[in-house]
Amino acid sequence: MVTNTGLTTSRRRWHLINFTIALLLGVSVLALGGCDETTPTGEAKPINVTGADFEAKVLDAPMPALVDFWAPRCRPCRMLLPVLDRLSERFRGRVVIARVNTVKSRNRELVQRYKVRPIPHLIILKDGKVVDKWVGFGPDTEEELAAALTKALED
């Protein structure tokens, strides 16, 4: 049965369940799809980068960078977004926090270069070199990332 919204009853139920889970997790429903494309480096939000601007915004940055390789349908990736927001605020102006959508074809070269398999896949880059990496999302991820970023800043 199709309603006036164009969604089947089961599809509407699925959207309602996702919305409820997002609210319970404290994730903004608007933030589930990504982050602000226009936020410049050093601001308190992660930036979305592509293969075209990765070098300029991440590799050429005068500071360490945390790069999150993610996909829109990946629940752990979406759960990681508030963590990245908090880290962006905490390390504002000292660390670039960027996100790369692994589904978009223009980012495939980056996915291959950094051997991204399971997602979420996070790497810390300093002077263009990988200094640390994580795969997955767990209860201690935020503290581990903060410690690694602090170490990257000190080295």
Could you characterize what this model shows?
The chain contains five helices and five strands; from the N terminus they run αβαβαβαββα. The chain is α/β, with parallel strands linked by helices and 155 residues long. The protein folds into two domains: 1-31; 34-154, Glutaredoxin, CATH 3.40.30. Helix 3 (75-90) links the parallel strand 2 and strand 3. The model is unreliable at 1-7 and 27-42 (pLDDT under 50).
Present the secondary structure layout.
Blueprint: H1 9-25, E1 47-48, H2 54-59, E2 65-70, H3 75-90, E3 96-101, H4 108-113, E4 121-126, E5 129-135, H5 141-154
Parallel strand pairs: 1-3, 2-3
Antiparallel strand pairs: 2-4, 4-5
Residue runs with pLDDT of under 50 for 5 or more positions: 1-7, 27-42
The domain tally reads 2
Name of the CATH superfamily of the largest domain: Glutaredoxin
- Number of strand elements: 5
Q: Which descriptor suits the 3D outline?
A: globular
State mean pLDDT (0 to 100 scale): 80
- CATH 2nd-level architecture of the largest domain: 3-Layer(aba) Sandwich
Radius of gyration: 17 Å
Q: Structural class of the secondary structure composition?
A: alpha/beta
CATH topology (level 3) name of the largest domain: Glutaredoxin
> What is the H-and-E element order?
HEHEHEHEEH
